[in-house]
């Protein structure tokens, strides 16, 4: 995990002009730069904190096709292929391996829900299949006794969030892409309603196009320009174990626990779908749009009022390009890990994964996940401001799908029609009366 205490390692000179400015150096922003650079387009990536310091280094590390929203699945299948190609080009730090993902079912009802999703997989010739209890025992050994069966996708994989995106960024930098940390973009530079670049804390940069890939910060940044983006954040807590016997080399989740084999010989552990939301002004502003998702996640979403509720209820909404912004005042979202979540992890391991029950945690952390009302991202151009593009709201699923999302964004910027149906990912779905149909969780 990367924090503000890590040294600044990307400090390229701020150019006066480029073809494209990308706001945010997480997996989405860096992947967009990857594909734009391959097309010979000059790019500046501005990061207010550190490359990959927020959710792109704090996630579970799953590169998962299984269980995706039907519209996301073809994009994710392409992303898995891109991960493999990037790993071959960049090297071991990406940590990509095709080790499989499993969802574990405690009950026949859960297993039946997984069986329904198989229909989606079959439409795209994905290698997902239902595991019997006997087959599960061959994969999980003693821990299999707690489960009725599961859903497995052998072509799913894993990568290493701590190192993957910085390694890709270094490769890009070596090929001429400008990346600058501690460089918050304060505002868009707009002339006659058209985006002409950005104003950063270090100066103005002209550009033909701007891609906002700001994750949890996107709603605030766009709101300053009058663009309405319904998006909220939830806190997710994760742990890293000490090295442990390799009883399962892939990733799995079920009940109150999720685990993934790590490149360093330990396991990444998470408390299943347990997340926490800190109520804020946007909670009330977007409450009705989020109701379907709240109903779907009611069993594992907790409200945490914290000790700064007043500040969250009275946020600063507007600023000018010559003012110090909230992006400079809070370089990296670094919430404390949840004690309740850590307790749930320990309980889940003892109950369901005996092989890891007594393995110590050597590190715990938390991240803030950007979530949309239908738990599906936005990848779109912004009609109000020609030249502005948006990629956000990946709802905890962004690390795996990031490379293909970057490819899509690079195509949109270049005026190329993406090779996927983008209707599900348009921003206007939140304002044109479309029903909010949440995609699958996890």
What is the helix tally?
Answer: 13
Q: Gyration radius, to the nearest Å? A: 21 Å
Considering DSSP H and I runs of 4 or more, what fraction of the residues is helical?
Answer: 25-40%
- Strand segment count: 20
Dominant shape: globular
What structural category characterises the helix and strand content?
alpha/beta
Q: How widely separated are the two ends?
A: 21 Å
Give a quick precis of the structure.
With 442 residues, the chain is an alpha/beta fold. Helix content is 30%, strand content 24%.
Task: Tell me what you see in this structure.
With 442 residues, this protein is of the alpha/beta class. The protein contains 13 helices and 20 strands. A hairpin with a 2-residue loop joins strand 9 and strand 10.
């Amino acid at each position: 995990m990367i924090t503000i205490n890590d040294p600044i390692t990307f400090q390229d000179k701020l150019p006066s002009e480029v073809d494209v400015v990308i706001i945010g150096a997480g997996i989405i922003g860096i992947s967009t730069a990857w594909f734009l650079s391959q097309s010979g387009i000059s790019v500046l990536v501005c990061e207010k904190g550190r490359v990959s310091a927020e959710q792109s280094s704090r996630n579970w590390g799953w590169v998962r096709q299984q269980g995706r929203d039907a519209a996301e699945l073809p994009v994710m299948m392409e992303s898995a292929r891109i991960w493999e190609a990037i790993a071959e080009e960049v090297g071991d730090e990406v940590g990509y391996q095709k080790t499989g993902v499993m969802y574990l079912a405690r009950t026949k009802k859960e297993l039946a829900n997984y069986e329904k999703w198989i229909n989606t997989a079959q439409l795209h010739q994905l290698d997902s299949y239902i595991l019997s209890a006997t087959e599960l025992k061959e994969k999980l050994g003693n821990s299999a006794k707690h489960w009725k069966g599961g859903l497995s996708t052998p072509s799913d994989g894993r990568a290493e969030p701590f190192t993957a995106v910085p390694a890709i960024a270094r490769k890009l930098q070596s090929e001429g892409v400008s990346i600058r940390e501690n460089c918050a973009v304060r505002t868009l530079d707009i002339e006659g309603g058209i985006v002409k670049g950005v104003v950063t804390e270090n100066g103005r940069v002209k550009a033909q196009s701007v891609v906002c890939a700001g994750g949890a910060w996107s709603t605030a940044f766009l709101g300053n320009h009058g663009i309405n983006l319904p998006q909220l954040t939830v806190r997710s807590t994760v742990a890293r174990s000490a090295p442990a016997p390799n009883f399962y080399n892939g990733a799995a989740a079920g009940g109150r626990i999720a685990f993934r084999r790590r490149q360093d010989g330990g396991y990444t552990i998470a408390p299943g779908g347990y997340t926490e939301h800190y109520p804020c002004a946007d909670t009330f502003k977007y409450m009705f749009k989020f109701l379907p998702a709240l109903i779907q996640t009611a069993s594992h979403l907790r409200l945490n009022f914290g000790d700064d509720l007043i500040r969250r209820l009275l946020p600063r909404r507007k600023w000018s390009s010559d003012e110090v912004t909230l992006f400079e005042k809070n370089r990296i979202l670094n919430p404390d890990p949840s004690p309740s979540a850590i307790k749930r992890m320990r309980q889940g391991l003892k109950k369901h994964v005996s092989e890891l029950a007594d393995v110590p945690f050597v590190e715990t952390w938390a991240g803030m996940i950007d979530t949309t009302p239908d738990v599906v991202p936005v990848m779109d151009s912004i009609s109000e401001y020609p030249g502005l593009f948006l990629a956000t709201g990946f709802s905890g699923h962004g690390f795996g799908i990031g490379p293909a999302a970057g490819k899509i964004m690079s195509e949109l910027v270049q005026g190329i029609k993406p090779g996927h149906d983008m209707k599900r990912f348009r921003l206007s779905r939140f304002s044109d009366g479309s029903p909010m149909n949440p995609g699958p969780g996890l």
